Each structure stands twice: as C-alpha cells, then as structure tokens.
Amino acid sequence: MSGERRAVVEARGLRLQFGERLLWDDLGFDLREGEFLAVLGPNGTGKTSLVRILLGLLTPSAGSVLVSGREPRLARARVGCVPQQHAFDPDTPLRGCDLVRLGLDGHRWGLGLRSRGADERVRRALVDVGAAGYRDVPVGRLSGGEQQRLRIAQALVSDPALLLADEPLLSLDLASQRTVVDLLDRRRREAGTPVVFVTHDVNPILRVADRVLYLGPGRWAMGAPADVLTTESLSRLYDTPVDVLQVRGRIVVVGTPDDEGVHHHDHAHAGSH
Amino acid sequence: MFTELLGQHFVHTALLAGAVVAVVSGAIGTFVVTRGASFAVHAVSELGFTGAAGALVLGVDPVAGMIAGSLLVGGVLGLLSLRGRERDSAIGAVLAFGLGVGVLFLSLYQGYATEATNLLFGSIVGVSDRQLAVLAVVAVIVVAGIAAAYRPLLFSSIDPEVAEARGVPVRALSVLTFLLLALTTAEAIQVVGVLLVLTLVITPAAAAQRLTANPATAILLSIVIALVATEGGILLSLQQPWPTSFFISAISFAAYLGARMRPWSL
Lengths: 273, 266
What we know:
The complex is a heterodimer.
Chain A: E1 7-18, E2 21-32, E3 36-40, H1 47-54, E4 62-67, H2 72-75, E5 79-82, H3 96-105, H4 116-128, H5 144-156, E6 162-166, H6 174-191, E7 195-198, E8 211-215, E9 220-223, H7 225-228, H8 231-238, E10 243-247, E11 250-254
Parallel strand pairs in A: 3-7, 3-8, 5-6, 6-7
Antiparallel strand pairs in A: 1-2, 1-4, 8-9, 10-11
Helix pairs in contact in A: 3-4, 3-5, 4-5, 5-6
Chain B: H1 2-6, H2 9-34, H3 38-58, H4 62-80, H5 84-108, H6 113-121, H7 129-148, H8 150-158, H9 160-165, H10 170-192, H11 198-201, H12 203-211, H13 215-239, H14 244-261
Helix pairs in contact in B: 2-7, 2-10, 2-12, 2-13, 3-4, 3-5, 3-10, 4-10, 6-10, 7-10, 8-10, 12-13, 12-14, 13-14
C-alpha cells in the first residue's frame, strides 16, 4: 500500500447510536485505491449500517464521510453493491443479462430501449465474471453461486469507483465463496477499485484482506489482520477474555459473549482451503 | 343472430372497452406479480366496490367512487411498503372491513339491485360511450406512467435492495405501482366486476411469466393473453347467453393452465 494512492473513502469521527445504545464512536479511516477492507464483528454491531452510511442511505449520529470526495448520496452512481445471495422466485421474469443491465441503467427513467453500447457493456461484464453462459437463463433457475457471479457483473457493469459487498458469501458453497472473493480481488488489483467487504466469517477473505475493521459492542479496532485478529486485541474489544486460535490455517474466535461454544465464524466450514 | 349482434353499436363499445381494460391490466399485472402483491389487488378491488357503493348512496357517479376507493387503499398499501406476512395480514384486515362497509352502503342504497350485481360481476355490454371515453383516458395515464418509470419500476419490483443502493426511490415507486394498480382495478371492475378483477390483472401476467423470462416479452404476452380473454369472452357471450365474466375468466384460466404445463423458455 503506497502512500500516494488516492483515498476513495474518507470517514471522520463516525458515531452510530440507536437511542441509548452506542454502537461505535469516533470511527475514522481512509480507504485508498486498490485496498481490500474486511468489516467483521458479531451481529448487531452496525456492519450493514456502515454500508448504508457509505451509500448515503443512513445518516451517522455524528461525523462525516466522503466517497470520491463527495457526499455519499451524490456518489451513489459510482458505487457498486454486491448483496447477500437471496432466492429469486423461479418464475421471476428476468434473465441473467437483464439483472446485469439493471446495474447499468435500472435507475434511469424511461423504457431504456436497446442500445448497442449498453448491450456490449453487459456482454463484457458477463464474460469478465465467467457468466456468459447464463446470459439468457432466468435468474430464478440459477444456483446461489451462479447468481452471485451475476451480482458481481451487475456491480461492475457501471465501472464503479468503490465496491461494497454485504455478506456476499452467505449460503454459498466453498467453491462459490472462493470465486466471489477472487473476482472482487481481481477487480481491485486490475482497476484499483477498493472493496469494503462485510462478513461474519473472516476465513474466506483472510488471504486477500489488507485491513480489518472489527466492530465490537460499543468499540472498534482497525489494522492489519495479523494485528487485529489476536487474543489481546479482541479481548480488549469485547472487554472480556476471548481466545483467537489458529486451527489448520483457519482463525477461530472462542469465548465472545454472543458465542455458542465456538464463534459463528466457523459454522460448518471446517477444513477449507 | 351472432352476425346481427356484431353490427350493433353497444357490441362495438363493449369490444373497445374490453380491449382498453385488457391492455392496462396485462401491463400492470407483471409488476404486481413480481412484487408478490396478488392479494393486494383483491383488496384494492373490494375497496373500489366500497367506494362505488358509497357513491350510489350519495347519488354520485359510482365510477368516481370506485376510483376514489381504489386510489385510497392503493396509496395506503404503497406507502406502508409492507412485505411478507405482515402485508398479508394487514391487507386481510383492511379488505374485510372495507367489504363490510360496502355491504352497509348497499343496504342503505334504495336503487336497483342490478347496480350492485353489476359492480360485483361486471357489465361490459352496458358500457356507454362516455364511460368508454373515461376508460380510455385512464388507460392512457396508466400506460404512460408505466412507460415513464419502466426501468426503475422493474428494478424496485424484482431487486429492491440493490435498487435502493443505486439511488432508485423504492418507496415512491411502491406508491406509484399501487396507484397505477388502483386505476387499473377501477377499470377492470367495469368489465369483469369486483370479484373477478384478478382474472385480468393477475392470471395473464402469471401465465406470461411461466412462458418467458424476458421482462418486456412477459409484459407483451400478458397483454395479449388479457386481450384474447376479454375479446373472446365478449364474443362467446354473444353466442351463448352466459355471463361475460365467466367466459373471460375461463379463457384466462385456460391460458394459465396451458402455461403451467409447458416448460419455460420462449
């Protein structure tokens, strides 16, 4: 990470508070071109709220954030979003190419009649993520992994300056998880588009994350994965002794307050990479 | 006898009115079905009935009352933007009460009972030239609304989370969908009646979506199915004096069954 890279996200003094409940305070960071930031933490610590703040859909209780030097609301057109996989109804009248096309001009008024340029951009986006084969397949007939490839194409087709992925690996098999991470990783390396990746399981992204933002109850910690994901750092964050274990190259957090034995980082995914 | 009827002015008016209603119903249906809002159609329609019954009591034009009732409940449903079970139960509650009020209005109304029957089951052959003009104007409004907002309507109906992230005004479009639906419903009531609105607004769109995954083709197919059902239903009822609504719903349902039995792709 060289110092000259342009900051795409500039967050200063962010506070998130719901009524009496303070989720985090004085959260500040720069996200520079080409960076991969993993946002971790247990449920209810405002991971998705951070994404919504970056999209200008939620106003922080205090502090400010700029995306590409502008108010998030005004920068939305330059942000690509990869959501959590969810099942489409099998009869949903939408093909693979239609889903990607919505990412290009679905927010514009009017019928959006066919145009050569748009068709070509959609085609290229599909090819880039290896989804050219599902161009004409109804989205409701695709597997979760195939749908997430389309989601990435949908996010990339508008050539975004920032990528936000909110739990994109949820309910995917390991091979599809790997594909999704690799595609986002490739984009930030080739085009310099920084990635904010919200996940409750750190392991699938450990090999690509430059930095980790760990949101805890009322606190946060940020830094290189090796510095944040330690017994000392997370015990301080949770304000209770927790253990960070390395098991066969995977990280397991044990003893967090919302824990049921083993932290949900690891459910049913033992023995991956 | 049949050819004689075909020369009659009231038959031409009925066929034109049926065509107008089929086009708007088939078009809006696609957005309603993808939102999973079929039940809402029924609520909007029954509140249209309540509005019309109220208008009869007050001695004003029942069509105006119908449009007012549909728009009111459509606007409220759109604003609430409820999803899943919460929406289902809220609609059920509103629908039941609205229908109860409609029953009260009907009992207060001292006029002809046929007015009530026409509202519930449709009276396509009784459409006047003036009514046809109103139908056409409302239809132009609905079609223009759909065309102007086509892309964000589709985006927010099928993929609301990402649409919101892209800056699509999801809530406003939900209101717009339900207002357009309300206008469409008020139109369809005049042809097939309150109880059979679903046969024009939901069935053709559901059938079309079994046949194609291309959204534009789905809308066009839905319109075609609705057109065949209404025009076919009117023509059949000229030959065989059974209710037009029966024939329309039978053709519409046949198209749906056919679409279900056929594997997708077109």
